[in-house]
Amino acid sequence: MTDSLISPVPELAPPRKAPQAVTDLVENIERTWQFARPYREEVEQEFYRLLFHLSPSAREFFPVSMQAENGRVVRALIRVLRLVHRPDDLVPVLRQLGRDHRKFGLRPSHYEAVGTALLGSLKHFLGAVWTPEVERAWAEAYTLVARAMQDAAADAEADGVEPPYWTGTVSEHHRLSWDLALVRVELDQAMPYRAGQYVTVEVPQRPRLWRCLSPANAPRTDGSLEFHVRAVDGGWVSRAIVGHTQPGDVWKFGAPMGCLRVDRESRRPVLMIAGGTGIAPIQAIIDDLGRWVDNPETTLLYGARHWDDLYALDRLYSFSTSNPWLTVWPVVEDISSTPDAERATTAEAVTRWGPWTEHDILVSGPAAMIEATVTELLRVGVHPSQIRYDPFLTA
User: What pTM was estimated for this model as a whole?
Assistant: First the structure.
């Protein structure tokens, strides 16, 4: 889960060769960011100071305690701007973000203020490194990003099909363990989401702290959504959901986002890798595939630190018995309580049980797990274009 005016963006497959002008632009951004990185916290503080000075109304988009924001906007912006040389991949993501960010009621003046604050905060700490050429590179990159998001928001408004956000009422909340809760929400209006996507969520216990959650079910006729939420250390929202959510609470939802999906038409075998509550979007995709008898051969590596953390395993095993195209392989890091289990991290398991060079691969879970697993897949020869994932911070 995560929150920000710009949500985290996944690492993408290697792009086709970019024009030299774009390459130079990105090189300027990368070089100067390395100089600014040691001052990241100071840059973040200066960014918010400038933003709220330039646009006092922007303060309404953030929680009362800025400690909960923790510099997320700046980090997300930097990551986006460092990918502007990959428009074929980045623009679709930015269009999703533009649709989602309608929930804030952003106006063009807000986009302008964010860009000015970002450049001003970098300039403040870079000193002589901040040359006219460097400033032009950052300004052009931000303009491309802001324009793509604003165009997407304008298109969504013109279509008049999707509201700026959806609302739904919690119909069920129960704990699967002391730190894990299942929450079902009944939407007031149908949401056009695809199995495997995620949505940003605001809960009444933590106003203006939006977090990303992945529904654990395929779209249903009644429009209901099921979420699995684990309370994490320091998690402002996750701990509130697990400990304090009650039936009758009204949640808000941004537009669906994400790239996790299975191409049934390709007929290529599929490898799904899930860690922790990252099983939720994978479970939604499997739920959706269950509508058909003929599906690609699918292998699921479901990992956790302890056997008891594999909370969805029984349900997945039960599903696989009537759907022979699905094979479920649980792996755990600590086998002390279950000696017969396979001891491995998901990264170790993909190396041990490959090869996977002919598979389409989906990875879902904590950011560190995704990074380690994808790195190992690349090391054993899987092409980046075969791998899909939507990393976001948990909190």
Answer: 0.83
